[in-house]
Structures
1.
Amino acid sequence: MNIDEITKEEMDAGTENFFALVQESLEPMGKWFVTECFEGHQMQNPPDGLFIEDWSGWLVPIERSGITQNELDGTEQSGLIVWRQNGEDAIAVEWRDVGLYKWDGPIDPNLKPIHLFTIELFQDK
């Protein structure tokens, strides 16, 4: 489905489904993602039931999963949840760290992305 053809309700449900996958993938690491805002880079033809785009936010210990942006204290890892094409039939979703509660300045090029999960894209042939 093309994102220009979906309703707001489908977009909201797709975003919720995407975040369920993100949180599920972070659980084994003992982490939880607190969103700040979407960063654009929307997938034009996402799999049914998902609305996929890049998000900025923070990783916190899972014990603090109920925390809000206003309660952050500066010890959280800030960064981005990003997606990228992974071959023709899949996308990879990754965490890109930008440091402790810091959005200004260059991102350390030595920080490697953390692969969270892959979504297989089944296309009609």
Note: Residues 3-120 form one domain.
2.
Amino acid sequence: MNLYYCKGRQVLSLLVVIFILYGCGAATSDPFLRRRAANVVMISSESPIEMKNKKFVIIDEIMGKSCGEKTGSDPSVEAALQMLKIEAGKLYADAVIDFICEEVSSSWGNCSKAIECRGDAITWKDR
């Protein structure tokens, strides 16, 4: 096998690993983003009625994903919901509404199945 081909594959593999680790670690390394995400309210059908009746503006649809990265490990709904809150925090949202999670097939990294949560990031009108 060609030496340059082997070195090129090693460098490419290293870059892919660095990119994946950077993407995973960057989610909450920013203390301001961590604080914003921690304050995002997840509004569901079990939420108090006063929360559901507040006037709001939809900022954008967001998505959070969890993957069972090791063979035999399962994706987590809780982790996907946390990623949803982080995405809402990036948009300076106050809450997430109309969210739902489902198991999906995935070609993301070493992930053969994943949990994907989608919802609407909102901000309150009466801030």
Note: The two ends are 64 Å apart (CA to CA).
3.
Amino acid sequence: MSISRSAAARTIAIVMTIQFAGGCASTRDAISLPVLKQREQALKRADSRDLDLKVEIARRRSLELLKNFEASVSSAEANYVPKFAAASNSAAERGAEIESMVATVYYLAKDQAFSTVETDEYFDKSLGPILRPPIEAFGRDVDKLAAKLEADLRVITVELGSNLNAGRSAANPNAQVGLPHVTTWSEFDKVLLGLGYSSPGIALYAATNVNRIATSSVLPQLLKPISLNASRVFATLVARVVASGGLVMVGGPLPIGEILAALNLLWSTYELTQLQPRYRSEIRSSAISNFDSVRGKVSMHAREFAREKAKAFDTLQVGMRDQAVGGL
């Protein structure tokens, strides 16, 4: 490491001073060893302060990245509010179509009579394609922001390692040298080791995938409240279907036309039309409310990830400073 070269340079300077002192005509002109020791310690303290300043600047840059990340997440949240509202409106219109309402009543009655879960499956197929895309897109956008934060933190850390090794003066602590590209964790690890610093460790490799969390758990959170609302809105009709034995006549999940033909014997289209505005409103308000909840959870997870990641990098950067001081 070039850090050890600075120590070597000081040792040479001290030896030269001793040699110069030995050649003096008078011993009073010679510099005593204790004085040389004091000067060496003063130089070390100055170098240590220089290293501290470089680390502090890197930490400030990292903190600024974290603030920018959180601001970008907030901006993404705001940008998706109208997209979530549009999806909620589309889902409400789709779910409140007469054929959709008939199918919903049928599946609710079947679930109640036979302890199945076909209503949830129906909503997943009919409303899922409408509600899923915006939340997945939001997750992907937040993922990109998180990936950029990681990449920028890696760059700052590699630049810090190079600056610590270069022994630049505090007068120009932001000076940087040409550095290899560190787009991946393996490249980052390799470059740091090449600079003489320990591997960052497993804490830095912990990755997040907000989009994965969204696709695995978010959609059921969006659809289940709609199913519960449907149970309340259509409670009377569902009870009538179950009591009439109409489900036996229908048998199983038939094409919607056949379901309409069979179940319309049990209630009039007028009844469904009367319930239509209420059901449409229930779907819309439920979807918007749950979009807000999901959006908040995804954003909170992303912010927690970012803080933990920044904390891990901060620990690494301080450790690099300690290694550099040890080489003085």
Note: Residues 12-21, 24-29, 168-178 have pLDDT under 50 and may be disordered.
4.
Amino acid sequence: MIPLMQTWRFYRTTNFTPRCFLLSAPTTRRMNKQVLVIGESHYLREESKKKGEPEVWYDGTAVAMLDDEDRSWIHTRGTAGSGEGQKYGSKAFGIYRNVEYAIQELLPDKTLPADNYLRYVAFYNYFQRPAKTGDSLKVTKQDKQIAYNHLLKLAEIFGVTHYAFVSKKAYYAFWDVHGNDEFSTRNIFGTAHPCTSWWNRSHRHDWWEKQIEMTGREWFMERIGKLKLNANHPSSGKSSGK
């Protein structure tokens, strides 16, 4: 993984339409697995909904239309990175709270900093166009293709080992576009949205040619497995013994 600022510079120099940036912390690079948790979409406030229409969003017109308030709504670090002690004030942030609880259980080392468990993974929203407040994104063919191309580019940069979709809409959109084996890992899976009842209700999950029954939360934890600091990383302060 590379620091968020370098990620931001990459997108600023290669894309001219507004992007819903990735949240990544230096700690993420030190983990034994490079986990990318993939949500669905950001939202624009009601009075700005016309700025999120596909024709103005993707042709670059929206860049000049967005004000500071609009940008704060699609700023991932300002939402997913705002938790203190895993307490998020808004119900809209329930996705981060529930994902954090699951990540907490995947960390056997209880001495690690606990102020924000999202420091141990990277997070971003799959669709690069925001939805209207109070409504799920009406996904177009263009949304799907741009989102897929965006993820391909992230894969090239970050060396992701586990793609954890926490939105079935995003997960199915990914497979709608996926053709050749462009991703180098089989560890691509989807769960129900952590804010839905299916996060804690047992249901069927398809894993290649298998069908497995468990809750969305259990499936998330099963597919990622234990997370720990990589003892071989130079910044860990530990010797590999070799």
Note: The longest strand covers residues 35-39.
